[in-house]
Amino acid sequence: MGLWEWLRGKKAEAPPSISIDRGLQKSRQGFWGRIRAFFSGRRGLDEASREELEALLLSADVGPEATEKILLELEKSLKAYPLCDEETLLDRLSRILVPLLCRNFTPPEGHPYVILLVGVNGVGKTTTLARLAYRLKGEGKKVLIGAADTFRAAAVEQLRIWSEKLGIPLVEKGMGADPGAVAYESVQKAIKEGYDTVLIDTAGRLHTRTPLMQELGKVYRVIGKALSGAPHEVLLVVDATTGQNALRQAEAFMQATHCTGLVLTKLDGTAKGGIAFALVEKTGLPIRFIGVGEQAEDLIPFSAEDFVHALLREDSLTTP
Ligand SMILES: Nc1nc2c(ncn2[C@@H]2O[C@H](COP(=O)(O)OP(=O)(O)OP(=O)(O)O)[C@@H](O)[C@H]2O)c(=O)[nH]1
Ligand SMILES: [Mg+2]
To answer: How far is the CA of 127 from the centre of ligand 1 (A)?
Structure first.
């Protein structure tokens, strides 16, 4: 509960999640398990072990910039307080990792609060939208969905099914309609009929296809014409299993629209998970949500502390 307050910046702490530990199990048992094992029996870092840790972080998708920062911070800390045991080293690593994932985002005031979802094909935009809509409706908010993915008939149909299942009204104009017009109408309807929030879905598009990216820029601008200051949040949805390509996607989408935050999906399907650090480092955007599975509760408001803890803690869960 309390997703709405958190989303609007009225509550600092993300609502607690029960599924993060299970959702990050693969990463914890994979590359982060190796990083944990690296510290086993260690009391410091020499040149060789520094290189080993560097290679481990890079192979977990952390990216060169964030990796260098982590190593420098760790060395600095070891210079100041040289002797320490394995648990203290891990604790120091956690304290270095958490701030790397913290980025402030103060949601702008706005009513209705307009959220636009963007990203390449199949990353989880529509699923994220449906989960957000479901949770917000559950908190008593008046929610509207805009089907601005008019690229495929199946996309409109997918949202229609969600809309019926969740009992949330949908604005749609069918396949082939101008996505800008759908977005415009959605916001207008929300203003007229007193909705609290409008969630607008867009078609997945390859970040390298200039005309499609320009079309997205138009959708973004049209929303601003329907309501000054909107969209209040532009969530760039990224599939955590795509690795470093995610950085190139982010760059292109940030040029086309004013992205305000990231949704990192499918973390349950990767043994790496370090792309979170690389993305925040490169884009400066906060991670707003993570996706760790197929269930409604598997979309989790992001907390850097919980995320780092779930990656680095000792694994006690059994594989399902
Ligand atoms: N395992 C897992 N699957 C996910 C997650 N998020 C989304 N999915 C799945 O990813 C698939 C694609 O999700 P969609 O929401 O349709 O993706 P999209 O970005 O809207 O796709 P397009 O509209 O075609 O661009 C679906 O099968 C989802 O169930 C997640 O966090 N974990
Ligand atoms: Mg979709």
So the answer is: 6
The per-residue pLDDT for range 180-194, each reduced to its tens digit, is 999 999 999 999 999
Our answer on whether the CB atom of 16 is closer than 6 Å to any ligand 1 atom is no
Using an 8 Å Cβ cutoff, are 280 and 101 in contact? yes
The conformation of residue 240, written as its DSSP 8-state character, comes to G
Burial group, residue 207, by CB count within 10 angstroms (0-12, 13-18, 19+): buried
**CB of 121 sitting under 6 A from ligand 1:** yes
Give the CA distances from residue 34 to residues 2, 146, 302, in Å, rounded to whole numbers and listed in that order.
36, 44, 24
- Cis previous bond, 231, omega within 30: yes
Encode 96-108: b = buried (16+ Cβ within 10 Å), e = exposed: bbbebbebeeebe
The b/e string for 291-320 (b: 16+ C-beta within 10 A; e otherwise) is: bbbeeeebbbbbbbebbbbbbbeeeeeeee
Tokens for 79?
Answer: 């210079």
What values do phi and psi take at 261, rounded to 5? Answer: -170, 170
pLDDT in tens, 51-71: 999 999 999 999 999 999 999
